[in-house]
S-adenosyl-L-methionine-dependent methyltransferase
Amino acid sequence: MSATDIDMARSLMSDSVDKTKMYVSLDQSKAYSEFRPRYSEELFKTIADYCRETMPDLGLAVDVGCGPGMSTLGFCKYFKKVIGIDVSETQIACAPKDVANCEFKVGYSHQLPFIKSKSVDLFCSGESFNLMPHKETFDEADRVLKPGGTLALFGYTFKATKPEIQTFFDQLLAKFVTYYPKETALILNKLRDITLPYSDYVRREDLKSVKRITPEDYIGFVKSLWAFVAYSKDHPEVDVAGEMQKELEDLVAGVNEAGDRTFEVVWELFILMGRKPKN
Ligand SMILES: C[S@@+](CC[C@H](N)C(=O)[O-])C[C@H]1O[C@@H](n2cnc3c(N)ncnc32)[C@H](O)[C@@H]1O
């Protein structure tokens, strides 16, 4: 998205959304668990490798704003213990309970009394830092990180390969835009507005996941968006998801070979990684 388009979207977004209450609906959290993209193995490995450069023995990873765990679980094969933390009880209720070295807790990113100071090798946040109090969350990260430990923020934007489908995505953003908090624009801009508190941090924007999805997959994804939930509440007379699905199905049928109901989506990943100084 161009800088101008992001500025335009930001100017229309709301400054009165309670960002800690955007994920309280169970239907939304279920859609989140089922339809939000899984991060690639490459993303988890990239962050674990960076962390390992200073902390060869990967002990504890803490993922704040973890949602139902898609940003958390991929770290379990690299770290001895992983803790996912989210302010939403429903998101945590939808996280898996059966992973031996992983646990999930309800809590704020900037208030982690159950994590000891200087005990954490990786403090991270996936697709969620924009919603958190920045300074307070960085301060809490600095308290719990071991010297040399890694602070990583990551997330994704997405686009369709076919221009007709991208136009549908753009129209959907325009329809919902006033329901988003202004901080959503930070994600649209891949957190380029954010500076990590540690010097010499790195920014990666070269990782991508390319997938073919169906209209059901995409509408399931839309149902996990706060703006869809808020818009639907304000328009109870309309079957918002049903109408969007029909429109998208017709569009896909019009641009594809007969019988192919899938279309290509590119999830563009971004990562910021920095280290707490050793002394
Ligand atoms: C878009 S979801 C990201 C979930 C997951 N990390 C992912 O990558 O898909 C944002 C999450 O941040 C959580 N959140 C918002 N503000 C928070 C805060 N101050 N502390 C902890 N979690 C927060 C929300 O409840 C929501 O589950």
